[in-house]
Amino acid sequence: MERLYLYDTTLRDGQQTQGVQFSTTEKIQIAEMLDQLGLDYIEGGWPGANPTDSEFFENAPKTRAKMTAFGMTKRTGRSAENDDVLAQVMNANTSAVCLVGKSSAFHVSDALGITKAENTANIAASFSHITGQDREALFDAEHFFDGYKADPDYSLETLHAAMEAGARWVVLCDTNGGTLPNEIHEITKAVIASGISGENVAIHTHDDTANAVACSLAAIDAGARQIQGTLNGLGERCGNANLTTLIPILLLKEPYASKFETGVTIENLQTLTHISRTLDDILNRVPLRQAPFVGSSAFAHKAGLHASAILKNPSTYEHIEPHIVGNERVIPMSNQAGQSNLRKRLSDAGLSVKKGDPALGFLLDEIKEREAQGYSYDTAQASFELLARKALGQLPTFFEVKRYKVTVERRKNKYDKMISLSEAVVVLKVDGEKKLSVSESMDDTGSDRGPVNALSKALAKDLGQYQEMIDDMRLVDFKVRITQGGTEAVTRVIIDSADSKGNRWSTVGASPNIVDASFEALLDAIQWKLIRDTSEKVHK
Ligand SMILES: CC(=O)SCCNC(=O)CCNC(=O)[C@H](O)C(C)(C)COP(=O)(O)OP(=O)(O)OC[C@H]1O[C@@H](n2cnc3c(N)ncnc32)[C@H](O)[C@@H]1OP(=O)(O)O
Ligand SMILES: CC(=O)C(=O)O
Questions:
Q1: Which of 4, 160, 184, 332 would be a feasible disulfide site paired with 218, CB 3.0-4.6 Å?
Q2: For residue 367, is it within any domain?
Q3: Which domain holds residue 245?
Q4: Interval 279-293: pLDDT, tens
Q5: Gap from CA of 6 to ligand 2 centroid (Å)
Q6: For the whole prediction, is pTM greater than 0.95?
Q7: Residue 272 domain-assigned?
Q8: Is 391 near ligand 2, meaning CB less than 6 Å away?
Q9: What is the CATH number of the domain that holds 142?
Q10: Strand, helix or coil at 524?
């Protein structure tokens, strides 16, 4: 088996994603996750470029992976030893150093404004400086593919200059992300034919044509032996090659699985989905459902025909088993579903119904009818379960909603500034007793959080004997969608809730009135939680 090296740049190129700004603590957490996964190199950032990156290297965790500091080649008119930017990179004292340098003649003249000979000399001097201090050196050959197409001799000259100065790796960068896999393959082959061993060639691609993963594989096919990329494909503009996709491909798909060994083991691959979602959690982003391998839809089988076959043999519609990457199979309910989807979803919810039971047909019709009205049970598993329980006569009644009201007022505060104030009143019958709860939506900072927030607080304020069970519940996501155009518009609200036991559940409400749709989804969220907690009590 040949060794293929994995280089992660989530903490550097990933941080160049618009809207992404890691704190030092977050960088440390991500570096630890990458190390446990089995990456060979972790590029931690650019020491000296900003306080967070400098602080990260001062406190970098001890990793098995080679911690790598990133910087740029020395500037013209000063020696490598006297270049203050390079000095800060070296002062991070990492065992590996990666410097970006120009490998395109166009960039040398137009971006740096120096001669080709000066640029080559800068590359040579910078790499001699790094290797002279016994550091492993990587040359990020910026704009290599575009440069090669315009002036191949010069682009190759820059790579050879770095190699002759002792670089361990030349990294062929498709910086603008516009090169397609066939060209990546051809040009990588040309680099190797020029006398640089594939053992010293790395690939760094961007996803501007949605080909970054394919381009990385094309370079490996041509002989490169290191892949650079990021978790969840973060990175400048459209992102970098997505390691969350590439790693399972390399471990599970041919010809890579039989030919190469990486630092990631099959056991560690099972942590991939968790790692991907933890990164999204850190970034406060909703995970991309359709992400290959790790997305929550990656193994979701919505169509009735698919679900029916999957229940007989999962390999009918799955290219791998979901647990291999730590993901799970989902058989959602929707207007595309048949009784197979339904029975699987019911058994997941602990409700067993025999094949052919007339309740199945009734429930399926009910779901399709409600979906036509604007509901969506595809993701709202908890609302689906409540609907199913009702149809099967297994829905307990915990309380009854007598009425509710929401008001939104605009008024001046004591500083004469106009503010909004939302207030909700909910009347319930619990334990045979009527309870009236009033709540405002003001948060600790004095800002109005809106009518739905007020409603949610009022609904969850006094549930009598059940109050304790919902105290650890929190609303984690609230999505609103208009599902039909024109005067027929219906608002669909999907609410994601979570509790301290690690449960996370989705509920749906639909109505022409957003407050009613929200209330319905909130009510379902509370009912689902009460069913879970009361059945746990019974089983204890
Ligand atoms: C393709 C990539 O993703 S490479 C990674 C790019 N990452 C970043 O740029 C993020 C971190 N960068 C920074 O914080 C800042 O740009 C710094 C601290 C590095 C430099 O800041 P400044 O000194 O203010 O320079 P500024 O960013 O305006 O311009 C970059 C300078 O580096 C020069 N430069 C660019 N690449 C190279 C190189 N490979 N070798 C030498 N000099 C270079 C440019 O010509 C420019 O110099 P000039 O102002 O004399 O024309
Ligand atoms: C170095 C780098 O990030 C690039 O060329 O894309």
A1: 184
A2: yes
A3: 2-264
A4: 988 887 878 999 999
A5: 16
A6: no
A7: no
A8: no
A9: 3.20.20.70
A10: helix
